[in-house]
Write a structure and sequence with these properties.
72% helix, globular
């Protein structure tokens, strides 16, 4: 049965902004492959997506009552969270990274579409990175005597987390409304692209190697092949992205009168 779908008139400015953010993001990624110097432009955004990914793991561990001994982000934009868990909680924690990053990007889209403050979204993102850096990137590893991590990885995590949190706060505080809105759209696109491409890479890695990964952890805990879990996460992510874009492009509540370009 065909879907009755039409772009809402009041969504056109938002969709235009989202398309611009997507075009810039994809363009920078493609150019970065051929001219690595351009890769430094998106590097902080890749680190931000990694912080969101690892923060989702850490928060999933925390809400299930499992201790987190460290959260680290590496210069190559990979990351790791060390936590003691078992049973159902371990499945929830392992799934939280990729699914959580996609959910975060999707929620940013919905947040903007329904006229909520983009500055508040940036303040929240800044606070999230700051809290995760301080609690799980600084206090936790030293409290656990740097178990499973190196001093260098902790220092880089603290440095990059501090710079990202300060940068997001500065944009929210001092940038014009137009640039604030573009920044939120850009972050949303980066989270969604990062999650999707990372899952694609994880699918290839899981199909060809036995490397340690979230999917490998799921396979070890359940006996179900890692490819199944990657495919499941891809399916869930696509559903969330599709739903988010549909909400972004269709009519919003009549109670909300703000447009994306109003602050």
């Amino acid at each position: 049965m065909p879907l009755n779908y039409q772009l809402a008139e009041d969504a056109r400015p938002q969709v235009s902004l989202l398309l611009a953010a997507t075009a810039v993001s994809v363009g920078l990624w493609i150019v970065g492959w051929y001219l690595p110097v351009f890769g430094y432009i998106v590097y902080p955004l890749q680190l931000f997506a990694t912080f969101i990914h690892e923060s989702c793991h850490a928060m999933a561990a925390f809400v299930t009552g499992n201790p987190v001994s460290s959260l680290t982000v590496s210069p190559d934009t990979s990351g790791a969270v060390w936590s003691s868990s078992s049973g159902i909680s371990s499945l929830f924690i392992s799934s939280a990274g990729y699914v959580g990053t996609t959910a975060f990007g999707t929620l940013l889209l919905v947040w903007m579409r329904y006229g909520f403050s983009s500055r508040m979204a940036l303040y929240f993102s800044s606070g999230l990175v700051a809290i995760m850096t301080f609690v799980f990137g600084f206090i936790a590893p030293f409290w656990n005597f740097l178990a499973n991590v190196t001093f260098g990885s902790v220092i880089f995590t603290i440095f990059s987390g501090t710079v990202l949190a300060a940068g997001l706060f500065a944009i929210a505080k001092f940038a014009s409304a137009k640039w604030v809105n573009f920044a939120v759209a850009f972050l949303a696109v980066q989270c969604l692209l990062n999650a999707f491409f990372s899952l694609k890479t994880l699918f290839v890695v899981s199909a060809t190697t036995n490397a340690s990964s979230d999917a490998a952890n799921m396979a070890a805990a359940t006996g179900i092949p890692s490819l199944f879990w990657v495919a499941l996460w891809i399916g869930i992510s696509l559903i969330m992205i599709t739903t988010g874009i549909r909400l972004y492009a269709t009519s919003k509540s009549k109670k909300t009168s703000d447009t994306l370009f109003e602050d």
